[in-house]
Design goal:
- By secondary structure, the protein is of the alpha+beta class.
- The protein is built from eleven helices and five strands.
- The chain has one domain: Outer membrane efflux proteins (OEP) (Up-down Bundle), CATH 1.20.1600.10.
- Strands 1, 2, 3, 4 and 5 form a five-stranded antiparallel sheet that branches.
- It is elongated, with a radius of gyration of 38 Å.
């Protein structure tokens, strides 16, 4: 090969390296069938048709509950939660790996320096006469090496690491969604305890009046010691229930403290009761869920990463071609190191090909194919789980709403029964046991109704999490 043809060959290799073929299959997302609508669509309506304005950013999904304190806690969770911080650093590592793999597309250049004092043995064979035994050697080498990506193995590796980085970004979004959803659910459960505490305080006031009534009737000879003791026991039991709520409330407060990245010691959330029905959460169509769930996006990106590794494995079947050049200056006198006569260099390509490896490359390709099949199965399983999550919460909201209506009627009936029995007791037409029984039933029904308020709003928050919390796959970074 003529010397002047070397630049032309190099240029051709550059073109092939950056724009040539890539062995292995090009990626195509696995097909996943989606139902045309959710089972509960008739109850909650289609997102696009029911609320066109919901096309706006719904990232701060918790603001639908119009609770300023929850809004503040969610912001603190996003900025200070340590699990979110760890997931962020995991993404940064994945992104750095993309940069590392991309650097393999370019030449490696290194330079060094050497200064050694050498002595030649007097008995060295073929030693020239009159040659000095001692001499200095000064060397400044420059090495350039480049392996052009002719078969796309490096580019497939970059594809895989970029898809992994996107999966890591989706994992970050999923971690944020999960923890902020957990914060909302925990916050609503704490507020539900506050609702029950208000109910018990009201009940304690009512029971105190009833105890006073039995004591007054005892003084007038219209009641018995047993009636007073039963009224006292009922009152103390209600007080004990109120105190017991403090244990659960403290645990919820401590859990929220960890979620917002603060020590549990001294952390406090003022009491305030839940009220009203949960807001309506439009669902959209099931096919949108594939774009709105970060865990689905992460699983799909893992399939893409595994697919690219098939190309990496297949590129091992092709020859490795390396372009290298070594040059520098060398002299035994430091004053002559940079003279033109001290320069030395060599350049040229090299190639190698594996002729026999006992099936190692075939095994690597089969391994990569099995990895892609596994990732595809996990992706489809994640999609099915996502559809189940949405259906679970839609069913829960529908059933709990029906239960709340029935429980509300039970509370009304129990309240009327208690009022009537108290009136009959005051007139001497009923025993105190009747009042006691009705008050016990009323408290149980009221606490069940209060628990339903909590369960419904928690189910609403969990539905928003199941729908992706306003996240979309378009938010994935392009590495």
């Amino acid at each position: 090969m003529k010397a002047h043809s070397l630049p032309g060959v190099t240029a051709m290799l550059v073109v092939l390296a950056f724009g040539g073929c890539k062995v292995g299959p090009n990626y195509k997302a696995p097909a996943v069938p989606a139902p045309p609508s959710y089972s509960e669509d008739g109850h909650y309506g289609d997102w696009a048709s029911a609320r066109p304005a919901d096309a706006a950013d719904r990232g701060a999904w918790w603001t639908i509950y119009k609770d300023p304190e929850l809004n503040g806690l969610e912001q603190r969770c996003a900025s200070a939660n340590q699990s979110i911080a760890a997931a962020l650093h995991a993404y940064e590592q994945a992104h750095d790996l993309v940069r590392e793999n991309r650097s393999a597309l370019y030449p490696t250049v290194s330079i060094g320096g050497l200064a050694t004092r050498n002595r030649i043995s007097n008995t060295t064979p073929l030693r020239p006469p009159n040659q000095s035994n001692d001499y200095w050697e000064f060397l400044i080498p420059l090495n350039i090496s480049w392996e052009p990506d002719l078969w796309g193995g490096i580019r497939r590796q970059i594809e895989s690491s970029a898809a992994n980085a996107q999966a890591s970004a989706a994992d970050l979004a999923n971690t944020r969604l999960s923890l902020q959803g957990l914060l909302a659910a925990t916050f609503f459960q704490l507020r539900g305890l506050d609702l029950q505490a208000d109910l018990l305080r009201t009940t304690i006031d009512a029971y105190t009046q009833t105890l006073q009534l039995t004591q007054d009737r005892l003084k007038g000879g219209l009641s018995t010691e047993s009636d007073v003791a039963q009224a006292q026991a009922q009152l103390e039991e209600a007080r004990a229930q109120l105190i017991d709520l403090g244990v659960q409330r403290a645990q919820y407060e401590h859990a929220i403290a960890v979620l917002v990245g603060e020590p549990a010691t001294g952390f406090n959330i003022p009491e305030r009761s839940l009220a009203g029905d949960p807001p309506t959460v439009p669902t959209g169509v099931p096919s949108e869920l594939l774009e709105r769930r970060p865990d689905i996006a992460a699983a799909e990106r893992q399939v893409a990463a595994a697919n690219a590794l098939i190309g990496v494995a297949k590129s091992a079947y092709y020859p490795n071609i390396t372009l290298g050049a070594t040059g520098g200056v060398e002299s035994d006198l430091i004053s002559q190191v940079f003279n033109s006569g001290s320069a030395q260099w060599n350049a040229g390509p090299s190639a190698s090909e594996v002729l026999f490896d006992a099936g190692r490359r075939r095994a690597q390709v089969d391994y990569a194919l099995a990895q892609r099949a596994q990732a595809t199965a996990l992706y489809r399983e994640q999609v099915l789980s996502a559809f189940r999550d949405v259906e679970d919460q839609l069913s829960a909201l529908r059933v709990l709403e029906q239960e709340a209506v029935v429980e509300g009627r039970a509370v009304d009936a129990a309240t009327r029964s208690t009022d009537l029995s108290l009136l009959r007791y005051k007139r001497g037409l009923a025993q105190y046991l009747e009042v006691l029984t009705n008050q016990t039933i009323q408290l149980a029904d009221e606490r069940a109704a209060a628990a339903l308020v909590t369960r419904r709003i928690v189910a609403s928050a969990q539905l928003q999490m199941a729908l992706g919390g306003g996240w979309t796959s378009a938010q994935l970074p392009i590495n």
